[in-house]
């Protein structure tokens, strides 16, 4: 994450901040406040604090990640060299705005299903290069991060299954070639495949793009066979504000939503000297 931030700053700086060099007196010290112009869940404060402090800018802030914020809230005050603060301004604002947007989206969905025993999770549909920041923000918003990367767990998806005979064949191959220390999840699209994978020891079975009625059929069949608790059941694919409760009330364990990171709106923050 440090390397990514260093690249962001280098990319923005180019050959130097020619505006600040032309206008701002060298050595001038100022106080600057970061203000919220939005409402939502705050994320990224610890990260941008470290950025400022790395450049010898003093930081004061009282709101922690995961805090609900409103318009005009003071998020952070910094003091130090004016040219340095201006050099960092856009990068730290962009990052904290993006992270707070993801955290806010996550928190919105978590609150929708708070009365149900279900976990809301993100996916790997993150912005390129800043996946870890997105995952950090999901956690700040109360959601589960799901996988951080390909080495986290075995997750057998449709393209993996396409190289095998069927979902069960893919699952059995994974079980024979994977350490006991790694969980195995498999994505299925039909009732029969879901039942077979639960019967054969998948840790997690993802019901992909199934309607609430189809998910209900799967849950009822697993209960009928007395194997419901053999595997965690995850649902994913096109879940929205309007449909999430329809899935949650069925008794699934996990609802994963790619839109938390691929479509969330950044919050709006500003810095004022």
Task: Give descriptors for this structure.
2 domains, 42% helix, six-stranded parallel beta sheet, elongated, 19% strand, TIM Barrel, four-stranded antiparallel beta sheet, Aldehyde Oxidoreductase, domain 3, 273 residues, alpha/beta, 11 helices, single chain
Verbal overview:
Helix content is 42%, strand content 19%. The chain has 273 residues and is of the alpha/beta class. It folds into two domains: 2-107 and 265-272, Aldehyde Oxidoreductase, domain 3 (Alpha-Beta Complex), CATH 3.90.1170.20; 111-262, Aldolase class I (TIM Barrel), CATH 3.20.20.70. The strands form three sheets. Strands 6-11-10-9-8-7 form a six-stranded parallel sheet. The longest helix is centred in the middle third of the chain and has 31 residues, at 82-112. The protein is elongated, with a radius of gyration of 23 Å. The two termini are 28 Å apart. The mean pLDDT is 96.
Instruction: Tell me the radius of gyration.
Output: 23 Å
What's the mean pLDDT score? 96
Beta-strand portion reads: 15-25%
Structural class: alpha/beta
Major sheet, described briefly? 6 strands, parallel
Query: What is the CATH level 1 assignment of the largest domain?
Result: Alpha Beta
Summarize the structure.
By secondary structure, the protein is an alpha/beta fold. 42% of the residues lie in helices and 19% in strands.
List the helices and strands and how they pair.
Blueprint: H1 2-13, H2 18-23, E1 29-36, E2 40-41, H3 45-54, E3 58-60, E4 68-69, E5 74-81, H4 82-112, E6 119-121, H5 131-140, E7 154-156, H6 158-161, H7 167-177, E8 184-188, H8 191-199, E9 204-208, H9 212-224, E10 232-236, H10 244-248, E11 254-256, H11 259-262, E12 269-272
Parallel strand pairs: 6-11, 7-8, 8-9, 9-10, 10-11
Antiparallel strand pairs: 1-5, 1-12, 2-4, 3-5
Helix pairs in contact: 1-4, 3-4, 4-5, 8-9
């Amino acid at each position: 994450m440090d390397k990514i931030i260093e690249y962001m700053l280098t990319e923005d700086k180019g050959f130097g901040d020619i505006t600040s060099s032309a206008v701002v007196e060298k050595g001038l010290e100022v106080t600057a406040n970061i203000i919220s112009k939005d409402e939502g869940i705050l994320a990224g404060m610890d990260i941008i604090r470290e950025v400022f402090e790395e450049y010898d800018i003093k930081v004061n802030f009282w709101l922690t990640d995961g805090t609900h914020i409103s318009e005009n809230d003071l998020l952070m005050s910094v003091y130090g060299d004016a040219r340095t603060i201006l050099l960092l301004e856009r990068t730290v604002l962009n990052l904290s705005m993006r992270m707070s947007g993801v955290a806010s989206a996550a928190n919105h969905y978590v609150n929708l299903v708070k009365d149900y025993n279900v976990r809301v999770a993100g996916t790997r549909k993150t912005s390129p290069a800043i996946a870890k920041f997105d995952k950090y923000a999901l956690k700040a918003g109360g959601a589960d991060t799901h996988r951080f990367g390909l080495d986290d767990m075995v997750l057998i998806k449709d393209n993996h299954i396409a190289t095998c005979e069927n979902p069960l064949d893919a699952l059995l191959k994974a079980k024979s070639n994977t350490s006991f220390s790694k969980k195995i999840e498999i994505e299925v699209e039909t009732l029969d495949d879901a039942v077979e994978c639960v019967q054969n020891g998948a840790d997690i079975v993802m019901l992909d793009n199934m309607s609430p009625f189809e998910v209900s059929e799967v849950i009822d069949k697993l209960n009928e066979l007395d194997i419901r608790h053999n595997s965690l059941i995850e649902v994913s694919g096109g879940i929205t504000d309007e449909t999430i409760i329809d899935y949650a009330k069925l008794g699934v364990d996990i609802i994963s939503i790619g839109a938390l990171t691929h479509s969330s709106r950044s919050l709006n923050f500003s810095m004022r000297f």
